[in-house]
Amino acid sequence: MPAKLIDGKGIAAKVLEAAKSRVSGLSFKPVLAVVLVGEDPASKLYVQKKQDACENVGIESKLVSFPETISQQDLIAKIEALNSDESVNGILVQLPLPKGLDRNAVLETVSPSKDVDGFTAENLGLLALGVEEMVSCTPKGIIKLIESTGTDLKGKNCCIVNHSIVVGRPLAQLFLNRNATVSIIHQFTKDLSEFTKNADVVITAAGVSDLIKADMVKDGAIVIDAGIARKNGKLVGDVDFEAVKEVASFITPVPGGVGPMTVACLIDNTIVAAENQRR
Ligand code: GUN
Predict the structure, then answer these.
(1) Is CATH 3.10.580.10 the classification given to domain 29-113?
(2) pTM score, two decimals?
(3) Is residue 279 over pLDDT 90?
(4) 137 lines ligand 1 (CB under 6 A)
(5) Rg (CA), the chain
């Protein structure tokens, strides 16, 4: 029997609906500052989607954009100004940053209480300690998608094809917090299928179309595709969808799977940040 589709778009819509009603119960309008450096078209599109979602739920988004020539020092000073601005509840620095800027130094400037991406050492450290305070948006969304299948992650083999701070590392911590067994694999792993074949849950975010083929996936596995690639001009994920859906029990589509959940979880995090700051 072919896999059931996990409807990320629909689940995200429910998260956003709940967010809207939570915002309407606040005595103030939360504000998210979206920092965009440079002109990367994909980043511009993602930022637009995040701003549209803010508007739909009643969060004010402020686009703070800079040319790719901005110095590290100036960018850090601008983020520090957003930290001290009491009208700003959340700060998001869209990644990747242009070459020449030190990503970790820039992200570390964001005040942990406004760090809606969960990328500061404090929030990543809390996550590693098992405290899920401000959890990165894509990993948080992926957990919600897996939970929507009714699967208990305890004791499950979870294989993550990505070792970035945006997806793989925080996601591994979320799995560990749920007592799953985790393997993280990446472009330097010798044999991907050695790990993917053994997994009850495969999560991929490599940006390589058809990377995950049917013979790499165990019968009945859950397959979550957070990859974004282009194939014959079409937006696709990492998974050979048509073939893998015949093997998996649940599978996410691209588009309409993980992407909308990332945006919904950002909204969620912004509300949490705003509520915590006004407490
Ligand atoms: N670039 C790709 N994904 C993300 C994300 O979740 N947050 C930010 N800030 N940048 C990204």
Answers:
(1) no
(2) 0.98
(3) no
(4) yes
(5) 19
